[in-house]
Amino acid sequence: MAELTALAQRISGLHQQGAAQESAAIVRQVAVMITPEDVTRLAALLQKNGPAGSSTYLARSASVGAPEHAAATLAELRREGLIDEAADLFHTLWSASSAALPALLAALEQSGQSADGQTLLWERASAPAEELAELAQHLRAAGRTGDVRHLLRQAAGRPINEVAAIAGALNAETAAELVGELVRMRSASDIGRFGAAIRGATELYDTLLFAADDLEESRARSAFAALRSAGLPTEPAPRPRGRSRQRR
């Protein structure tokens, strides 16, 4: 504790001498070099003695370390009642890259903060189509298929034109999952509007037809009626025998 006290005094002293940038650089460095417990102890000292804002800056800086370090620091800050510092760190984690998010979600789970991981996923479900598609790819590559389903379920509730753009950005397997979520969640009229939005994408449109065909019978009839009302085909496009699938 004596070393942390001396470090806090050095940070404060530099700031008071007008060397704010040097002070901030030390905060950034130690945030990822010391243990989560020591980050929390140092944050408490800085919160009490200043400089102003240094404790939350320390917490935010922990986000650039390993996911396990960031998640453990978040848990420790909360455990010690440093609410503002924990909130700042968590909000900073929202900007994690798509490539980094799977490891961060795993680290949050391991530290008993699964609900925070679901919050991050919920936020990402409103991302632009290309970004969401990239995230789905990284989640699947990391074996987090449950997170892929959660992400797609949220995305399927977006405006129809946005869902169509997302489906077009996804690979075939993931696009089929998204379409499946859409036909199960949305009304027949929404399915018709989605069909109109993707009519030019033959493979994707056929995926919609097969997903609608897999619905409970009365819902399937309503979905195909909506497609016909929109002037859209209700049979898959002709294709080579080896790739064909007949509707039931």
List the main descriptive attributes of the protein structure presented here.
mainly alpha, 15 helices, 248 residues, elongated
What would your notes on this structure say?
With 248 residues, the protein is mostly helical. 72% of the residues lie in helices and 0% in strands. The protein has 15 helices and no strands. The chain has helices at residues 2-16, 20-33, 36-49, 54-61, 67-79, 83-93, 101-110, 114-124, 129-141, 145-155, 160-169, 172-185, 188-197, 202-213, 217-229. α3 packs antiparallel against α4 (54-61). The protein is elongated.
In short:
This protein is mostly helical and 248 residues long. The protein has helices at 2-16, 20-33, 36-49, 54-61, 67-79, 83-93, 101-110, 114-124, 129-141, 145-155, 160-169, 172-185, 188-197, 202-213, 217-229.
Broad structural category: mainly alpha
Task: Count helical runs.
Answer: 15
Strand-and-helix sequence, N→C?
HHHHHHHHHHHHHHH
Radius of gyration: 25 Å
Number of strands: 0
Give a topology summary.
Elements: H1 2-16, H2 20-33, H3 36-49, H4 54-61, H5 67-79, H6 83-93, H7 101-110, H8 114-124, H9 129-141, H10 145-155, H11 160-169, H12 172-185, H13 188-197, H14 202-213, H15 217-229
Helix pairs in contact: 1-2, 1-3, 2-4, 3-4, 3-5, 4-6, 5-6, 5-7, 7-8, 8-10, 9-10, 9-11, 10-12, 11-12, 11-13, 12-14, 13-15
